[in-house]
Specification:
three-stranded antiparallel sheet, 7 helices, alpha+beta
Length: 154
């Protein structure tokens, strides 16, 4: 099995910018059969990630938070800020309005075992691989790790 992230990652992945129209990002993901894209700013530094999960809000919509009325006051039973965030995602028209910010990342020189553990522990499907300047140099998916495991067993 490859020993480092660099040996198993996909180099130079497709990236989008926050201002990229959402329908363009959806088309890229569908045509390339990928489940997520790193999002980079104008300086090419990683600012977020857009995934299938982020896009599900577009189809499913959101449910307003439960509340009760008590003495002419509204008491929310769930955090209304969460509802506002989800509503923003459901109505978003650009990648920046829908993406998840502060994605978990890894560097190319890290052991592949560490990346696999991170994917498992955080229950995520992909890790943007960044250099010391937070520039995207690759992406590592669960599939990449499985392929690396299969190649090492031959």
């Amino acid at each position: 099995m490859p020993k480092t992230v660099a040996e198993a990652m996909t180099s130079l992945p497709v990236v989008v910018k926050p201002q990229t129209p959402l329908n363009e990002a959806i088309k890229i993901m569908a045509e390339r059969r990928i489940s997520g894209l790193p999002v980079v700013g104008d300086d090419d530094r990683l600012v977020g990630i857009i995934s299938e999960t982020d896009l599900m809000w577009q189809e499913t919509g959101v449910t307003p938070p439960a509340y009760i009325m008590f003495l002419d006051s509204v008491i929310f039973l769930q955090n209304p800020a969460t509802y506002e965030r989800d509503l923003h995602k459901a109505l978003g028209q650009t990648v920046g309005e829908v993406m998840s910010t502060d994605p978990i990342t890894i560097s190319a020189d890290k052991p592949l075992k560490n990346a696999a553990q991170l994917l498992h522990d955080r229950d995520i499907r992909r890790l943007p691989v960044v250099d010391a300047n937070n520039l995207v140099v690759g992406i590592l998916t669960r599939g990449d790790i499985i392929r690396a495991m299969a190649a090492s067993s031959d």
